[in-house]
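pinning this so it doesn't scroll away 📌
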Amino acid sequence: MQSVSPTTGTLRARLPLPALLRAMRPKQYLKNGIVFTALVFSVRQAWRPAYPDTWLPLLLRALVAFLAFCTIASAEYLVNDIRDREADRRHPRKCLRPIASGELPVGVAQSAAVALFAAGLLIGVALGWRFLGVLAGYAALMLAYSYILKGLVLVDVLVIAIGFVLRAIAGAIAIGVPISPWLYLCTLLGALFLAVNKRRHELVMLQNGAGHHRRILEEYSTHLLDQLSAMVTAATLIAYSLYTFSAENLPKNHVMMITIPFVIYGLFRYLYLVYQKDEGGSPDEIVVRDRPLLLCMGLWIVTAGILLALFR
C-alpha cells in the first residue's frame, strides 16, 4: 500500500488544481474568439500601408479582451456547475464534471469563481470603461441565466445568443472600430442556430429523462426545435448573404460574396452532424474534432482576410 504524505494530502484537499482547471472549461474558450470578429472585419482600416504598425496594438487589445471574457466565462461555468450539480449527476456525461462528481469541493469552486470574476473585471479596466460596461453586463446576464433565465422556455436560447452578441460588441469597443449591424445580426442568428440544435441534442439523448435533468426541456419537443432550427438556418444564410454586399465597411465590388459558399457548407455540415450523427451537444468540440467543418472555417477566415486586405 502506498503511503501518502500528510502535507501532500492537505495541499491536494485545499487546492485540487487539475479538477479546478477542468471545471473552468478551457476547451470552451473557443466561443470567446468572437471578440476577434471586429478585428478581422476592420482589416481594411487597420492594415493600411501608410500605417504599418497600426494592426499590432489592435491585436494586443483584442487579445486582452479575449482573456477578460475567458476569465469571466470560467467563473460563470463554475457558478453554473455549482447550481446544477444535482441535475448533472443524473446526466450520462455531465455526471463526470468535477463538481458533480465530488472531485472539486463546492467551497473551492465558489472561492475560485469570485476570484475569477474579480480578475476578469480588473483585466477589463485596461480597455476602458465602455468595454468594462459590456463585460460587466455580460457577466450579469450570464449570472441571471444560471439562476433564473435558463428556466424560461425560448428565453434560455435567446440569452445564450445575446451573450455572443455582447462578445462581438466588446471586441469592437476594445479596438475602437465601428462594426456593421449586419454582423451583429449574423452573430445573433448563428448563436441561435447552435443553441437550438444543442437543445435538440439534449432532448434526443436524454429522451424520457430529459425533464429530470433539466426541467426546461419538458417545454420543448423535437418537432418544435426542428422548426426553429429550419427558421434560424434560413435566416442566418440570408442575413450573411445580405451582409456581404450591403455592409458599408466591406469592399464596394461585393467580392465578399465569394465567402457565402463556405457559410452554406458550414451550416449544412453542422446539420448533418446533428441529424445524422446525433451530435450537437458540445459545439466547441464539434468544431475542433470534425475536420471538414474545421477546414471550412479555416478557408472562410483565410478567404475573408485576403479579400478584406486586397479590395477597397
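📌 and the second one:
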Amino acid sequence: MSVPSALVTATTEARGSVIVHLARALRPKQWTKNLLLFAPLLFTMNLQWDPAHPGGFLALLLRVTVAFGLFSLLSSAGYLVNDLLDLDRDRLHPTKRLRPLAAGLVSPSLALVLAGVLALGSVVGGFLLSGAYGAVQSSYVVLNTAYSLWLKHVLLVDVFAVAAGFVLRAVAGAVVIAVPISPWLYLCTLLGALFLALAKRRAEYRLLEAEAVNHRPVLEGYTLPVLDQLLAVVTAATVIAYSLYTFTAENLPRNGAMMLTIPFVLFGLFRYLYLANVRDQGGSPEDVLLQDWPLWLTIVLWASTALAVLWAFRGV
C-alpha cells in the first residue's frame, strides 16, 4: 500500500520545521560573541605575519576559524541548557517567550540530547585541536553550568560570571595559536563584557518593571540608579584600560600608533549607551551589533584601523 502523497508532504514539512526551530534554539546570532577568539591573532599580527612566508599566518587563521566553530557549537549547547532551566521564566518575558523551547516548538528531551551531543563533540574536537584549548573549553562548560544553576541568581556575581565567559573566549583564541597576550587585553575584555551585561540587566529592569523579579530573580537586588552608576564606572574604566593598552602592551607597536583606534572605542561605547538608554535596545547585544549600522560601521572602522596600524608597523 502506497503512502498518500499528502501525508508524505506533511511529514517532510514537519521535519523541516523542527530543524528550523532547532536551528533557532541554537541562537546563531549570538555566535558573534565568539568572534572574540580572533582578537589575539589580530593583536599579534605584527609579530606573526611574515611577507616571505604568508602561509604561516594563514595556518594560524585556519586554526582560529576552526576554534571559532567549535566554540560556537559549545556555546549553543549552553544556550539550550539555559533555556531548558528557564522555561517558565522565559514564558513571562515579552520576547523570550517566542524562543522555540519556551513556545513549545522544540521538545525538551530533543533539546537536551542535542545539547549533550554538541557539548561532547565540541570539547573532544577542542582537545584534538589543542590540549590547552580543550582545557579552556572545559572551563567554559563548568562556568556556564554554574551560571545556569546558581551564579545568575547571585547579585553582581551574575554579571561577573557573564564577563568571565568572554574572557575565556579571549584566552581560547590565544592558546589555540600559542601566542602571548598582554594582560591589558584580558582586562579590556572583562570590562567590555561587564558593560554589555550591565546594560542588559538595565534593559530587562526597565522592560519588565514589576514583573522583572519573576523573570530574573536577581533583578530584585538591582535598582535603576545603581545600574546607571555601575555602567558609568565600567564605561570610564573601559576607556582608560583600552587607552593604556594601546601604548603600553608589549605586543603592539612601540610608537603608540594603536592610539588611533581609541576614538572608535569611545564612539562605540557612547552609541551603545544611547541605544540602550534612549531606544531601550540594550536587552539583546547581538541584535544591536547586527542591526545598528552606525555601530557596525564603527566596529569595521576600528578593525580596519587596527589592521592597518599593525601591518604598517609590523616588527616595530
